[in-house]
Design brief:
alpha+beta; single chain; 155 residues; Nuclear Transport Factor 2, Chain: A; 34% strand; 3 helices
């Protein structure tokens, strides 16, 4: 191999390696982002279950949007976020978390929360968290997604 060809091959190898490193970088940051989002959801659940409403509020960016059923609330302070969460009667043990973009949908198994009795202990509930820069900007109670391994209707 001539010197010029060797330089060209080395340059090509370095270029391919560099582009592979650039391509791998978004995957790594995506993995880190998903890990962070899961951690936020688990922290929300742990703090809620412990009755730490002020701790829950620190997980939110304010103002935040909270939607439950037909009601949507724009909570402008962390005190309002804490107050809203203090009214939730159920704790929730995380069963699963699915990430899509900046949304984490979590399924919880409900239980009693401290001194309050849950209205549906043992049942599943779900919430969708919109998380931006590690903070919850929107929380919405959503229907429990169907299990992915269950077969669909047969035609």
């Amino acid at each position: 191999m001539t010197g010029a060809r060797l330089v060209a091959v080395v340059a090509l190898a370095l270029a391919v390696g560099a582009s592979a490193a650039v391509a791998a970088s978004p995957t790594q940051s995506s993995t880190a982002r998903e890990r962070q989002m899961r951690a936020v959801v688990h922290a929300w659940s742990a703090r809620l279950n412990a009755g730490d409403n002020a701790g829950v509020a620190r997980l939110f960016s304010v103002p935040a949007l909270v939607i439950q059923g037909p009601y949507a609330y724009r909570l402008r302070t962390r005190a309002q976020v804490a107050l809203w969460h203090s009214g939730l009667p159920c704790s929730g043990r995380v069963v699963s978390v699915t990430i899509r973009g900046r949304y984490a949908t979590a399924v919880f198994r409900l239980g009693d929360r401290g001194k309050t009795s849950c209205d549906a202990p043992g049942t599943l509930a779900a919430a969708r968290f919109e998380i931006v820069d590690g903070k919850i900007v929107r929380w919405e109670q959503v229907p429990v997604p169907p299990k992915q391994d269950e077969p669909g209707p047969v035609a």
